[in-house]
Amino acid sequence: MKYLVTGGSGFIGSHLVECFLKNGHSVIIIDNFNGFMTIK
Asked: Most buried pick, 9, 12, 35, 39, via CB within 10 A?
C-alpha cells in the first residue's frame, strides 16, 4: 500500500514512516523546514 505522511521528519512521523517501510509499504513524506522554532 502507498502512504502519504505529512510531518514525516518529526518524532511521531518518522517512527510511523519507519514502521510502514519495515512492513513493505511505499511512503511519500511531506514536511516543512521553515525554522519557526529557531532560538535567536
From this structure: 9
In this structure, the number of other CB atoms found within 10 A of the CB of residue 9 comes to: 13
Residues 6+ apart with CB under 8 A from 4: 27, 28, 30
More confident of the two residues 29 and 39: 29
Q: Are strands 2-6 and 26-30 parallel, antiparallel or unpaired?
A: parallel
Instruction: Give 22-30 contacts, CB < 8 A, sequence gap 24+.
Output: 25/1, 26/1, 26/2, 27/2, 27/3, 28/2, 28/3, 28/4, 29/5, 30/4, 30/5, 30/6
Match 517512527 to its residue by C-alpha cell: 15
